[in-house]
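ok new one. same drill as before - structure tokens go in, u give me an amino acid for every spot. 182 of them this time. try not to just spam alanines like last time pls lmao
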């Protein structure tokens, strides 16, 4: 079996297992966090709170987080989704009606996950405690995208990689640019 076939089979197995979770409390919590993260509302709200209450460290972390979210969204939604055009997981894999409320855009990669991971990874170096706190809803958003049938696990993993890269670039670019000044 080739690598793509193995990834496709793993996507099917994991998607069906995660989508079949029946705990209403877990399902409800995931849905609430995903709704808060829609349109990056959660990350913008967290950045505002950090900038307001966190002093210089909070403003630095908030700015890094928002810059990373912007970079991740451009990469994931503006570039990758346009190139990939991957259909969403088949409806018959998802045993609940939340599958009816998913977007029509390309499944690959998960823009929600890329934003969540980008924000969290960019905030963590400036304010590790807040970065750790942000990791909880970021993980919940990532799981919810598979549980709701909006994405395959490989979409979420790729979104996470894009988020990490966006955070690294956002945090590294100013130092690199300042070092190269004549």
């Amino acid at each position: 079996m080739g690598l793509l076939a193995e990834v496709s089979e793993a996507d099917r197995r994991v998607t069906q297992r995660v989508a079949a979770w029946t705990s209403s409390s877990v399902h409800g919590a995931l849905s609430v966090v995903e709704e808060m993260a829609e349109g990056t509302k959660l990350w913008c709200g967290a950045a505002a709170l950090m900038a307001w209450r966190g002093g210089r460290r909070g403003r630095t972390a908030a700015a890094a987080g928002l810059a990373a979210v912007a970079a991740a969204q451009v990469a994931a939604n503006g570039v990758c989704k346009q190139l990939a055009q991957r259909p969403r997981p088949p409806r018959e894999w998802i045993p609940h009606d939340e599958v009816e409320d998913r977007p029509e855009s390309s499944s690959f990669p998960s823009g929600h996950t890329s934003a969540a991971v980008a924000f969290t990874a960019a905030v963590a170096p400036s304010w590790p405690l807040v970065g750790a706190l942000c990791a909880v809803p970021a993980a919940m958003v990532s799981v919810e995208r598979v549980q709701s049938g909006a994405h395959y696990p490989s979409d979420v993993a790729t979104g996470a990689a894009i988020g990490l890269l966006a955070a690294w670039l956002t945090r590294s670019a100013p130092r690199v640019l300042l070092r190269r000044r004549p």
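Residues 30-179 form one domain. and btw DSSP finds seven helices and no strands in the chain.
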